[in-house]
Amino acid sequence: MSEEGIFSVDTLLKYMGNDDKARTIVAKIVRDACAPGMAPFEQAGAALREQRLPDAGKIFHSLRGSIGTLGAKRLVAASLELERAIAEQSTDSIPSLFAALESEYQLVLRDADAWLRRNAA
After folding, report:
1. Is residue 80 within 8 Å of residue 68, measured between CB atoms?
2. CA distance 48 to 94
3. What whole-number distance in Å separates Cα of residue 112 and Cα of residue 44?
4. CA 83-71-120 angle, 5° bins
């Protein structure tokens, strides 16, 4: 699978002026978006195990919104697929979609961390 679409703040940087000030602001956005770490998956996993599908769906929707701003196209696609399965109560497909989304999220966190190390002051 291509690395493209995992994480890219290039467009965001460009819109913000692509200078040191923009880089500082984007670094804060990246840090804030990634700060929860794996907690959303722990919470959503618990919600799924407890059959609280709407709660799990809300967690993924929120995650998609915050991480999607980081150019995480693959994560957004995986999240939409899982959210749809949750809304349709397709319990057979939820575990594999959850695992796929979790894997994408880990890649975003990895690439975001690498970007921060290269670019943050």
Report:
1. no
2. 9
3. 22
4. 125
φ, ψ of residue 71 in degrees (nearest 5): 70, 25
User: pTM for the complete prediction?
Assistant: 0.91
- Residue range 59-88, pLDDT digits in tens: 999 999 999 889 999 999 999 999 999 999
Question: What ranges do the domains of the chain cover?
Answer: 10-119
Work out the number of other CB atoms within 10 angstroms of the CB of residue 26. 23
From the list 101, 112, 111, the residue with the least C-alpha distance to 44 is: 101
Question: Please, which residues have CB within 8 angstroms of residue 63's CB and are 6 or more apart in sequence?
Answer: 40, 79, 105
- 116 to 42, 95, 103: CA distances (angstroms): 24, 31, 20
